[in-house]
Amino acid sequence: MQSDAISCNLVLSVAPRTVGDVSVPHVPAPESPPRRGAPGTGLVEALRAGLAAAADPRAAPGMQAYMKSAMPFRGVPSPVRARVLREALEAHPPPDAAGLGAAADAMWDGAAYREERYLATGLAGFRRYASWPDVAWLPRYRHWIVTGAWWDHVDEIASRLVGALLRGAPAQVTPVMREWARDADPWLRRTAILCQLQSKDATDLALLTEAVELSIDDQGFFLRKGIGWALRQHARTDPLWVREFVESHPRLSPLSRKEALKHL
Q1: Distance, first Cα to last Cα, the chain
Q2: HSE on the CB side for 250, CA within 13 Å?
Q3: Which of 255, 254, 230 is nearest to 242 (CA)?
Q4: How many helices (H) and strands (E) does the chain have?
Q5: Exposure b/e, 234-264, CB count within 10 A at least 16 = b
Q6: Is there a contact between 181 and 206 (Cβ–Cβ < 8 Å)?
Q7: Confidence class for position 41, pLDDT limits 50, 70, 90
């Protein structure tokens, strides 16, 4: 839930004090200057106001039911969210990467509606600021993955945000993906599998192989589906490699195998 920071200047009324036989009136301390809002406050307020203005209470229950979400929806569809994001950024451009990150964190951690978290990832992936997130954002993305823990959040973070970092700084990000591929959290493992969906010829086949093999026996639907999706996507670039991979991995689940070979 949104927490509004209200800056107040309080003047306390204190009774006069007595020094010997002399009454000394209390003199209040000078008022402090008003505190400035936290970085990104105006942007966050504009984003939330935009969502509130675009809310559709009739659509919200269906969206929540479809996502099986404990967090309610405003009922704002994706094209309208994109407009809200664009207009808020035009009115309140972040000064730097730290300001962008602060706004994204506030939208994610303070979310009362699921669309606020969609806008958090939208801030991180906004084209105008695409070069601002760097490997220092990986802990932020990890936090979002673990706390979001559902495909709508995780797939966006994996393919667009983590994937961009991996392609931009493979030496630094690849070891992290190898760690996530071994993590007990299935959504981190799904991220390690899906993070190269947009890599095409730059796909690190060793990383893809390792991420898939580490979850190949997992019976979770989203891991089996994710494996098939990652292989199917790479088949657009190298169909022979994918066909040979499937043939050499008989332990792939029927779902993973079907998805991988869907267009071959």
Answers
A1: 48
A2: 0
A3: 230
A4: 14, 2
A5: bbeeeeebbeebbeebeebbeebbebbbeee
A6: no
A7: confident
The reported pTM is: 0.84
The full length of the chain comes to 264
Tokens coding 64: 């929540």
CA gap 137, 98 in Å, rounded: 10
Backbone angles phi, psi at 11, to 5 degrees: -110, 115
Residue type, 108: W
pLDDT of residue 152 exceeding 70, the answer is yes
Confidence at 50, pLDDT banded by 50, 70, 90 = very high
CB atoms within 10 A of CB 132: 17
Q: Which CA distances in Å does 156 have to 4, 128, 148, 185, 248?
A: 29, 18, 11, 17, 30
| Torsional class of 16: left (φ above 0), alpha (ψ -120 to 50), beta (otherwise) | beta
For residue 204, report the phi and psi dihedrals to the nearest 5 degrees. -85, 100
Across 149-165, average pLDDT: 98
* 214: its two tokens: 């580490």
Paired tokens of 91: 């009115």
The rounded percent of the chain whose pLDDT value lies above 90 is 84
Q: Which amino acid is at 56?
A: D
